[in-house]
Structures are given as C-alpha cells and as structure tokens.
Amino acid sequence: MSGIPARYGRWGPILAPFIVIALILHFLSGNFGSNSPKHPVPTGTQATAAAATPSAENQTAPATETTPACPQLKGMDDVLVVLKTGITESQEKVPVHLRTTLRCIPHKVVVSDFEEDIGGLRTLDVFHNMSESIKQNNEDFALYLRARDGGRDALLAQDHTKVANSASGMSDNPGWKLDKWKFLPMIHTVRHARPDARWYVFIEADTYPIWPNLLGWLSHWNPEDKLYLGNQMQIGDITFAHGGSGFVLSNPALNAVADMHAKNLKEWDQITEEQWAGDCVLGMALTKVGIDLTWSSPHVTTQSVWEQDAFGDAWCHPPFTFHHMTPADVDRMWEFEQQWFSNEKHKHLLYRDIFRHLVRPTLADYLNNWDNKADRGDDQDEYEGPETPASLVECADYCAGDTNCMQYRLDGNGRCTTSPIILRGTPEPGMKSGNMMWRVDAAIENAAKCKKAHWVRP
C-alpha cells in the first residue's frame, strides 16, 4: 500500500531474560482470625470456617521449575486482598489470578454470588445470610436462586450474554444486575474473614493489581485513619470509588461502615434497590459515616494497560491497577512484571516503564484489523481531515500534517479519526490503525525523567 510501510507489530522480548530470584523468602502463613470473631455477623453477611480459620488456600505458593519463589513484600501481611466475582465469569477469569497476581498473597478471599472451589480456593457466597425475603421477591436474584438450587447446570445462555454498557450500566445482564447487591454484604464477609487486617484491598476479576506499587503507595498513609482510597466516579451528586479500578479501605473505615449498615439493613436494601451501581451504594454508605473518598487517580484507572494514556501527569506515578484486563492480558502483564522486578534495583513500576518497555515495542507504523482508539473525527468542529469514505493514505497524510497528531484510524466505512495521545489499542476486524512513530519516540524522549516516583499523598 503506497505510503504505508507494511510493518506489523509483533510480540517479542521486552526486557532481558528473566532472572530467577535466588534468595527464597517466605510469607507468614495466613491468619484469618479466631473462630470467635470480635464482630458478630449480621444478616447480609457470611460466616464460614474457611473464612474464619487459617487454611492452605491462604498460603503463598511454593517455587517450581517454571515459577519463581514468592518475594517478601513489606506490608503485605497487613493487607487482606478481596477479589469480587460471580458465577458467570469466575471459572473464566479467576484461575489466572490464582496462578499469577494472587499466587504470592498470604491473605486473600474471593467473594462471589456462588460458593464453589476454584483452583483449590473456596469462594465465599456474600448473600448466604442475606434476608431470604429479598432474595425470593427481587428479580435481581433470579440468577442467584437458580445457581444456588441447581449449580452451574442451572445457568442459561442469557446469563453469559455480554450486553454493551449503557448510561445505567449493563442493565439487561443478569450477573451485572445481581452484582450491585454484593458491595455492602461483602464488607461484613471480609471483616469476619480477617478482622485484624490493617487494609482491605478490593479488586475484581478483570482488575490487574501491582502489589509493590500498592504497598509503596499505602506506606504514605496511616491505617489508623478512616480512609477510603480509589478512582473517583460520580453519579449525580454522589462521589464514590469505581469498583473495577480497585479501592482500599482502612480497618477503621471498614468497621465504621459495617457497623452502620448492620444497624440499618432494611434502609440500605431499599437504597440498593433504587440505585444501579453497587460501588455507588458503598460510597453513599461511607459518606453517611463521614468518610469521604480520597481521589487516587492515576494510581488506579478504569482502563486496561493497552488503553491507558501513560503520558502527562501519570508518567512518573506507579499504577496500582488496570481494569478490563482479559486473562491473556493478566498473563502478559504478570510476565512483564516478574521480569521488571527481577532486577533488585527496581522498587516500583512507573507508567513510564510500562510504556517504554511493554507498550512501545508493540507499536508499528501501520496495523491491519486493529483499533488504536483514535476518536477525533468529522463529528468535531476542529476536524479538517478527509471526508468519508477516505483512503488510509489520506488519513495518514492528514495526521502527519497535524503536529499534535500521534495516531490515526480508518474504520470499515472509511471514516478517518485521529488522536493526540498514544494507546496500543486492541484487535478489531476491519479496522486499520497507524502511528506517527517518530513523534511517539520524540514524546518519550521529551517526557519527564522521573528522578523519583510520584505519589498521591495525604
């Protein structure tokens, strides 16, 4: 194709070959509290022996010929990691975390709408002790009741349907409708699981966490304060932490909201019924007890590593999470993370490092069947590019003539769009994408040198 180099991006080695960590350290064994927890479990929570006592599922994994020993991460023993999932996705998305991101975590629970074994770990049913009246009389619980009575054999094809997001979320998806009810009950579930944790870190099955970055971030905060850290979202006048981005509660914050909710179950069931987002409901409950969200972007993000702008303010920050990560993405990111931290000089992983060593090597002048998410087109007043249908050369020439243009894209209808930011993007049949590679490399060269990591601090 005239004017467009036929060079395609390929996955290749990103860093030096992986160096197996020589000094084998071990974590303290998991301790999930006593059999007589300090806090009684109210209706809407779950108490199980697996959650209340130490068990093999809460130990870190040993080293093997193909996986390294678990490094000792200072402060990890103070953290309970909570992965929230559901029956329609758990078997697909959770196993990859158990062999990667959760493998070396000494204290972890997986909360769900269905109790089952996944890779040797027992999930906790957050609705186990919830009012049976609500479950029987609210259509949001139809999926839960079918699964509880019939297991996975009771699932319907529609339960797995991935409905596109609307202004009110995936309102036609059974699993999504059920998910909003999990947020407040799971607060009690995790408190019962480990009441003495200093931090409670909540992620979802498509969230990728970077633990050294989290612990570095938390080291700047006092766990004795009532803290609610997360990626700021807003519905109306309600500000809350986006669940998929991951969020953190200190022990005093979790206890405060759990105690309040336990005394007002009916009121908060009604509030949950009226809202469409469970993370918003939790934010409302925390506000009720006087705990406001600490805005924590860019440590936490709504985007995947392939769709997140790494430049600007983010560049020198260590990200804690990426969202919308597929199991393949999790594997790829984990492999990269292991390579990075095998160098003892690397204490944290910055957006800069991820872009330079993971994203940049996958970029190319031109990629077919690829969507780089460039979205500035003829629907905007400032657009002066070719009319639809345009050729790829016309779109590329328009981008080249705009000094702010980094990427261009041509969809199946020949519509040209451009972007001033640099994203790797995702596969998309019929889409064509290109990059101004000399500008990309110039942007890297001109970016901040990051003499030290930048943190969102108190």
From TrEMBL:
Keywords on record: Glycosyltransferase, Membrane, Nucleotide-binding, Signal-anchor, Transferase, Transmembrane, Transmembrane helix
From the record, give the transmembrane residue ranges. Answer: 12-29
Where in or outside the cell is it found? Answer: Membrane
List cellular component terms (GO): membrane
Composition-biased stretches, type Low complexity, lie in: 43-70
The text of the family note is: Belongs to the glycosyltransferase 31 family. Beta3-Gal-T subfamily.
User: Per its record, how is this protein called by name?
Assistant: N-acetylgalactosaminide beta-1,3-galactosyltransferase
